[in-house]
Amino acid sequence: MALLTLHRTKLKENFEFLKELFDSQKISWGVVSKLLCGNRMYLQELINLGVREIHDSRISNLAMVKKIKPSVQTVYIKPVSKRNVGKMVEFADVSLNSELNTIHWISEEAVLQKKKHKIIIMVETGDLREGVMGEQLVEFYSQIFQLPNIEVIGLGTNLNCLNGVMPSTDKLIQLSLYKQIIELKFNKKIPWVSAGTSVTIPLMLTHQLPLGINHFRVGETLYFGLDLFEEKLIEGMQGDVFVLHTEIVEMQEKPMLPVGNLANNPQGETAEIDTELYGQSSFRAILDIGLLDVDPKYLIPKDQGIEILGASSDMIIINLGKNLQNYKVGDSLTFDLKYMGALGLLNSDYVDKKVIS
């Protein structure tokens, strides 16, 4: 069985880098844990770092956080369905919202549970996922700020999550202005302007973040150390907190081209034939992991001489050329991961998980 490892020391280095960055600009932040898919061992690692606020898009994952440490502030970060409002209010202290009816249901449930539920109103800033349109925001707020057991603690936005619209200084100034307008009109204090996710961090690093932005929700940069503007490692951060370890279960020298009549494979793909490769062979290996666990396009071989040829549900096929490294059956091959690759692996029950120091 393949193995996914989390490197405790590297995670801590990334956390401390971000903590120092946010503290230096007096910005509060929470860690997005949805990548961890509710894995108790990995959630415990976050909490051991001193994380006091955890964000997730799955209620069951927030329930696990509360089970580990009830004092952690939990934030539900996607619109909640009507049938899950009760569970959400039970396990989330805060939620991101953009629908009036939903907030009414949350208010009713919070009254029943005798809880004060905090909300961040999400504002549309161009990426066209969730969010109230800016021209409707004042009216929207006027209909919810007096609801029982509801406390509006922030305005927020998401960028780059659907259409790839990147954050900019202008867009974030606009968000800050919305906060000022609401505070002046209703004489109500809104503590947070939640600028978004890891994709906004490069604006901090280049001193382009407006002063009004004072809250972040960070996942990908914590786990992968990436500047998402330039898709490169941030100096001082670690990019391989997560590493995939696979085992070679077959090693054979085989023709480089398939033989026979070609049709679509189960993934709907048809092999492309390079006629110059007829008569040539190479060493091919099969790894003990497949599409059920991860899409190979999100894997980055540590050994740059490895070529990923394709995958079926339970196997990945790689090309080792002349196998100058002298790999053999039973050897381990390791891969760095892109975010979506780690997400698939963490969501798979067929991949072992471990913490290393």
UniProtKB/TrEMBL annotation:
Protein's name in the database: Amino acid racemase
Entry keyword set: Isomerase, Pyridoxal phosphate
Cofactor(s) required for function per UniProt: pyridoxal 5'-phosphate
KW Isomerase (keyword) present: yes
Record-level Gene Ontology MF annotations: alanine racemase activity; pyridoxal phosphate binding
Residue ranges of every copy of the Alanine racemase N-terminal domain listed in the record: 9-225
Lineage of producing organism: Bacteria, Pseudomonadati, Bacteroidota, Cytophagia, Cytophagales
InterPro entries: Ala_racemase, Ala_racemase_N, PLP-binding_barrel
Isomerase among keywords: yes
A UniProt-annotated Pfam family: Ala_racemase_N
Signal sequence annotation: none
